[in-house]
């Protein structure tokens, strides 16, 4: 997971969404493809997975960008190999160009928290809307545990019951827009939950709030990594272990002492 904008390439895809410039780095497609292949997807299933992934990540970053605009700043969106970014400012151009920052701004911790929470909230709202639509169409949504991971499984009714492609699309959208935002809300930096925890700690104690947030990130990231390893979720274990190590490295640069 990265928190800085990846370099431009000649293979970037550019378009506008609700007035926000959007750039999709080619590694976004590569990582999405590898995740789909790793899950054993067939050709049509892989296409469905890529559509669900694109819609979900784009919606997440759009939530951030809309909240940034709500507080009076321009923003643009970049999707890359490990997720996405909503960045304040104006992109200057295409391949090889840099972006023009919007300049310094002072925000309240509450505003920063709303910006961080807007991305996961947008995804959870989409998941809730999908569940409501399935129920209104006569179907149900079941909670199933697979290797200890809770999954929402749509059960379509009537003529839709035999539509395998629709089932796969809804299944992928439900998982990406429930599991991913909930994981993203864990107090681990630089995830959105970590950013929210950081603002809460700094608001409570400006002097040592950053160190408290980093220690919380180390402990939570390490605990999730161990739990994921025990559940044989190697990718999740590696991700959270690397985030915990990154937070610990930041602590060492600050002196490493415990703030309590």
Helix content: 55-70%
Shape: globular
- Low-confidence stretches are 94-99
Count of DSSP helices?
8
Beta-strand residue fraction: 15-25%
Topology, element by element:
Elements: E1 13-17, E2 20-24, H1 26-38, H2 43-70, E3 75-80, E4 83-88, E5 90-91, E6 99-100, H3 109-136, E7 140-146, E8 149-155, H4 164-176, H5 179-184, H6 192-204, H7 209-230, H8 234-253
Parallel strand pairs: 2-3
Antiparallel strand pairs: 1-2, 3-4, 5-6, 7-8
Helix pairs in contact: 1-2, 2-3, 2-4, 3-4, 3-6, 6-7, 7-8
Question: Can you offer a commentary on this structure?
Answer:
The chain has 260 residues and is of the alpha+beta class. Helices cover 55% and strands 15% of the residues. The protein has helices spanning 26-38, 43-70, 109-136, 164-176, 179-184, 192-204, 209-230, 234-253, and strands at 13-17, 20-24, 75-80, 83-88, 90-91, 99-100, 140-146, 149-155. A hairpin with a 2-residue loop joins strand 1 and strand 2 (20-24). The longest helix has 28 residues, at 43-70. The chain starts with 12 loop residues before the first strand and ends in a 7-residue tail after the last helix. Residues 94-99 have low confidence and may be disordered.
